[in-house]
UniProtKB/TrEMBL annotation:
Its EC number is 2.7.4.6. The active site is at H118. Keywords: ATP-binding, Kinase, Nucleotide-binding, Transferase. Residues 4-141 form the Nucleoside diphosphate kinase-like domain. This is Nucleoside diphosphate kinase.
Length: 153
């Protein structure tokens, strides 16, 4: 358990096109996570193939890359207590129909192929994804809310 754990969260093209960026960011801010990197980017197919390399053998891979390259994505890094695990819970199941109401996918999605967001599935994946999307690094700062969100140990 780490207060400085980081996770990579990406709002996919459907989330951007549906104007859900602010709502998704608000969920992480309201939960108490600290935004340490953010950019809007129209990723190249090559960049996306690198990001989704573990899915290359799947039959849906070409369609996934085409969809992800169809419009801009919002790439973000959030930092805080158990950011990877909690971030995944906040997003909900990959299949939105299996996501509970209250999760991002449970509230805003109906189909696996349009599930509006991606979140790192492990600390190791987060480190790789952050390095891929933010080679320049992230912003280091102390957030004024930290003592109000996290207790001293």
């Amino acid at each position: 358990m780490s207060f400085t754990e980081r996770t990579y969260i990406m709002i996919k093209p459907d989330g951007v096109q549906r104007n859900l960026v602010g709502k998704i960011i608000a969920r992480f801010e309201e939960r108490g996570y600290k935004l340490v990197a953010l950019k809007l980017v129209h990723a190249t197919p090559e960049h996306l193939e690198n990001h989704y390399a573990d899915l290359k053998s799947k039959s849906f891979f070409p369609g996934l890359i085409k969809y992800m390259a169809s419009g801009p994505v919002v790439a973000m890094v959030w930092q805080g207590l158990d950011a990877v695990k909690t971030g995944r819970v906040m997003l909900g199941a990959t299949n939105p129909l299996q996501s509970p109401v209250g999760s991002i996918r449970g509230d805003y999605c109906l189909a696996v192929g349009r599930n509006i967001c991606h979140g790192s599935d492990s600390v190791e994946s987060a480190e790789k994804e952050i390095a891929l999307w933010f080679p320049e690094g992230v912003v280091q700062y102390t957030h004024i809310q930290e003592p109000w969100v996290l207790e001293d140990n």
